[in-house]
Design a protein that fits this description.
The protein is built from eleven helices and twelve strands. The protein is of the alpha/beta class.
């Protein structure tokens, strides 16, 4: 059985933000910041104009500090494009979620609170439809990391997903931190394991993509989509080529 949410495989461009700028990290290390654009709205418009259906936006400062820090930038992005935005980074309360929605976000990505304070997710689900709430699980060696990847927990990824699905969550983004920004291929074994354990969730893979072949391999792992960041910014994947492949699926 595959995800009941699957309507077609998604390739989702990533825009990570620090100080209002579009950046990328390597392996989640904040000392590895590389800036790609001083105007993330221009980057978003490029992706939208090329034909992508949604954007993955992460407020890296928000993730590290505990509350969104770049919602003005997110609002500028939302005003520049009509495609859907999924946003995470510091959503630790219903107020944070509401602020993100007000900035133009379609889907909320809750990360650390899935481990530290799952009652926040319950509160958000009382206000917003569950299809608009995603749990983002960042993983090192099958254990979930929180607070912008800075704090490692002993919580196994399988247990965390099992816990949030009991709350009504049906959408998961899983990032293998060791792969993120490294361009060495996605963690296919991890995604295969999660698909077997949770056949009905909407599962989006993240981290390590370096080529169209990596995208295709992720599709074959029965993930519902893949987030692509650095490979686009470094020109390793041609955006039009990947969109042509998507349309042929």
């Amino acid at each position: 059985m595959i995800s009941k949410y699957r309507e077609g495989f998604l390739v989702i461009p990533a825009i990570d933000i620090i100080g209002g700028k579009c950046v990328r990290l390597c392996e989640g290390r904040y000392d590895s910041v590389r800036e790609y654009s001083a105007n993330p709205a221009d980057v978003a418009k490029m992706f939208a104009d090329n034909g992508f259906e949604r954007l993955h936006i992460v407020d890296l400062e928000g993730a590290a500090s505990g509350s969104p820090q770049n919602l003005k930038t997110v609002e500028k992005i939302a005003k520049s494009v009509t495609i859907e935005i999924q946003f995470g980074g510091g959503i630790k309360s219903l107020n944070d979620a509401t602020s993100a929605i007000s900035a133009g976000v379609r889907d909320l990505i809750c990360g650390s609170v899935a481990v530290t304070n799952p009652s926040v997710i319950e509160e958000i689900l009382l206000r917003y439809d569950r299809d608009r709430v995603i749990v983002g699980a960042d993983v090192r060696e099958d254990k979930v990391a929180i607070k912008g990847w800075k704090e490692q927990t002993n919580n196994n990824i399988i247990d965390v997903i099992k816990s949030v699905t009991t709350l009504g969550i049906a959408k998961i983004i899983c990032t293998d931190i060791s792969k993120d920004g490294m361009l060495k291929g996605p963690a296919l074994d991890l995604y295969n394991k999660l698909r077997i354990a949770f056949p009905e969730i909407w599962l989006i893979a993240s981290g390590g993509v370096s080529s169209l072949d990596d995208v295709i391999a992720t599709r074959e792992s029965l993930s519902d989509g893949i987030i692509v960041g650095k490979a686009f910014y470094e020109g390793l994947i041609n955006q039009k080529e990947v969109l042509k492949w998507l349309r042929s699926e």
